[in-house]
From TrEMBL:
Family in the record: Belongs to the glycosyl hydrolase 26 family.
Protein name per Swiss-Prot or TrEMBL: Mannan endo-1,4-beta-mannosidase
Keywords noted in UniProt: Carbohydrate metabolism, Glycosidase, Hydrolase, Secreted
Single GO MF annotation: hydrolase activity
Catalyzed chemical reaction(s): Random hydrolysis of (1->4)-beta-D-mannosidic linkages in mannans, galactomannans and glucomannans
Length: 365
């Protein structure tokens, strides 16, 4: 496989030349807004929250601020590795989340906690001595390649069905194979070679786009926080012609287990932002958060301060989910949480945008 090429684009825009008008507009509007603002996102925000699930029009963030997050995170995990009826149910539920968000003018980003096709019993995590390496088996020529193509067809069927009330397909930021520089997922660094990972990425994009006619995806590349230089960040990068957005997941530098290294976190975000500007890409802080928000001033003292520390251009920052049943697994405040006053300062800061603050993201001025 040839070395990854990094080429500057004269005019930034989606890598899919047939991207829908709305997808092109989303790319351009995110790029423009990122020069002065950052959008706030929350995983599974409208599906469930702290102590509730499946209530129309609700999100914990909206209960606190009056507005949904600007970016809503969903997951394609339910589209494979289960009985057909369950997959159809997942598809219907995802479709509703996507279409409702698009109709409100919000933005959808998609993670993919994808179960190992070779050892399905192990799920998406790598389990030593049980999990089998899967990347080499699902890329072209692999034992499970045909099965992988079927799963991509399920994703394409969904992507090509999510029409808003304007009759247009809702664009999505698709972020497969995230945190690939760690070893906890089966697509992680220790479980496949660099060439295998790049081959998987390129095949996935080209099959969805060229064979299955998906033209409403922007593709996001996001390692965890294990890099300290641009070269390390780009270690498994498939090339500029295969990526629309570069990002990073980073809990470790932002207070996980009581450990803070904001300076390191800022430096890594700057690497991501600088590369995006050079290559004509979008950049984002694709996942972060502090579980249980144990530090009540985390929003302004850690997160906002870090986001503003350097002149960065980040389209959005997304915090992880609020579990419906767990009393401790949550990353956004809910009413009466001790961090609410600080979160309101974060919300009111002109730099941060929530759904109610967004211009029309799907049309160009």
């Amino acid at each position: 496989m040839p070395e990854t090429t990094v080429t500057s684009q004269a005019k930034p825009g989606p890598i899919d030349r047939k991207a829908t008008k709305e997808t092109v507009s989303l790319f351009n509007n995110l790029l423009t807004l990122s020069k002065e603002h950052i959008l706030f996102g929350h995983q599974h925000a409208t599906e469930y929250g702290h102590g509730w699930s499946g209530e129309e029009g609700r999100s914990d963030v909206k209960s606190v601020t009056g507005s949904h997050p600007a970016v809503i995170g969903i997951d394609f995990s339910g589209l494979s590795g289960r009985p057909k009826e369950e997959i159809e149910k997942s598809k219907a539920s995802l479709k509703k989340q996507i279409v409702d968000t698009y109709n409100r003018g919000g933005i959808i980003t998609v993670a993919w906690h994808f179960s190992n096709l070779v050892t399905p019993q192990t799920g998406f995590y790598w389990k030593d001595s049980v999990s089998a390496p899967a990347v080499k088996n699902i890329i072209p020529g692999g034992s499970h390649h045909t099965q992988y193509k079927e799963i991509l067809r399920t994703i394409a069927d969904l992507a090509n069905s999510v029409k808003g009330k304007d009759g247009k397909l809702a664009p999505m930021i698709f972020r497969p194979y995230h945190e690939f520089d760690g070893d906890w997922f089966w697509w992680g660094k220790s479980h496949c070679t660099k060439d295998e990972f790049i081959s998987l990425w390129r095949f996935t994009v080209s099959y969805l786009r060229n064979e299955l006619g998906v033209h409403n995806f922007l593709y996001a590349f996001s390692p965890d926080n294990k890099f300290n230089s641009e070269a390390e960040f780009l270690d498994r990068y498939p090339g500029d012609e295969w990526v629309d957005m570069v990002g990073m997941d980073n809990y470790g530098d932002f207070g996980r287990n009581g450990k803070y290294n904001l300076e390191a976190g800022i430096k890594k975000l700057k690497i991501v932002s600088d590369y995006a500007q050079k290559a004509g890409k979008l950049a984002a802080f694709t996942e972060t958060g502090l579980e249980s928000i144990a530090d009540k001033d985390w929003w302004t003292a850690s997160l906002l301060q870090s986001l503003k520390a350097e002149k960065m251009q980040l389209a959005y920052v997304l915090v992880w989910r609020n579990d419906a049943k767990s009393s401790t697994h949550y990353y956004a405040p809910y009413p009466d949480h001790p961090s609410v006053p600080d979160f309101m300062k974060f919300y009111q800061d002109p730099y941060t945008l929530f759904e109610a603050d967004l211009p029309d993201m799907y049309h160009m001025k």
